[in-house]
């Protein structure tokens, strides 16, 4: 049967590819030392660290999501790609520490009417080879992402695009077919990252690969790619921005096994990593900074098979009731996460926070109730059918969560079969339908790219590319559709919150927690504050020597 949520309405995630820092749920603080020269771990939110004062010749940084399939920024919806390319390529704008857009390859934007955006381009920007950035390069970069043959996940921003044209020597104009409140956010995203037209056309299909290379404008230049081993980048000393990096060369490695990651960090073979396994904390004590930042990342279960056991609402309710949320927060995340009542975390309420808060607080706080789960299973034949739960082995915490869910399911009479996926297999789930075959339920940690809840909730509208489970609800679609055309922040928030309530009741997905952004780097380094923006902004620029 189809994944039907309610009789009146028939009918994921950005990687699972956006913040109001200082939410009441998260106390701001900073991490420091213990007074004896040994760094300490603070599970609170880090908002500042000492600025770097020294140049660093080289460092090694691990990418736990594994080796990227490409370095083409058009494919940077995948974290293994974006963590690297965020330091190589730039968009027209970038997000600052406050998650507000700041000029990058554009110096400003005018919005003369609801359908038009006029962007003024920077005149002093050059590619790594010294060639100037032209409107033709910008148009080429945007238009190649709009080509369905390229398969870029960033094509989604242009659902309401009429056209994009060069309207001056240093100006491009974007025109829409109807108002779309989310569009301006994408000017700072890889959807508008600029690559050199001449270089990309010459490289052809090899663009972004180890053999084809890359040509962008960012603070670091592509150096070499030894497949199966590492990617090296070197500082772009001709970068237009005055905030020049202090680290000259960076070597990116691709260790995906959590134990091996810990060993490499503890030994000093690797200088830093995002998403460090929390189990590594004892081994890393005194060896560097383990910092935590406010997050726009939800960890949740999403339905992939709309015709299996989970098509039955009672099965989804039983699954929601059997999860040990408190245990996950305390034992798995060790106090570095917060409970989550809806898919989009409070940190992503970038406007009209009072509207979002009022509706969010109406939703029930998740709590384990094994008796309720068992009763639902006993009364629901479909709930006794096997459910295949997939997760990535590259994230230790998610392996533990998946195991805990399967164990709790067995206690209430459900059969949850675990399907562990490598980092590469897990990434394929979001790209290829064949990779999702045989999977009923997916455990994943997504993130919002910018503080706009609408950007994430639109993924669950009927027929959307990321709506893998086939969720369909006319009321939900109507609310999201109205929000998309509402520029008034309060009015938009009301519509998004309405859709949020509908989906929360239907359990198209089951939110578990929002974990902090976490980063570890050796004590010879400083400057990097953990923020969600590391996937789309040049985070390595802030690093340097103590």
From TrEMBL:
Gene Ontology, cellular component aspect: ATP-binding cassette (ABC) transporter complex; cell envelope; periplasmic space
UniProt keyword list: Signal, Transport
Positions of the Solute-binding protein family domain: 100-463
One example of a Gene Ontology biological process annotation: peptide transport
Gene Ontology molecular function: any one: peptide transmembrane transporter activity
SUPFAM superfamilies: Periplasmic binding protein-like II
Key word Signal present: yes
Leader sequence segment: 1-27
Subcellular localization(s) per the UniProt record: Cell envelope
Keyword rRNA-binding among record annotations: no
Pfam families the record matches: SBP_bac_5 (PF00496)
Chief location bin: other
Similarity field: Belongs to the bacterial solute-binding protein 5 family.
PANTHER family according to UniProt: PERIPLASMIC BINDING COMPONENT OF ABC TRANSPORTER, PERIPLASMIC OLIGOPEPTIDE-BINDING PROTEIN-RELATED
Protein name in the entry: Peptide/nickel transport system substrate-binding protein
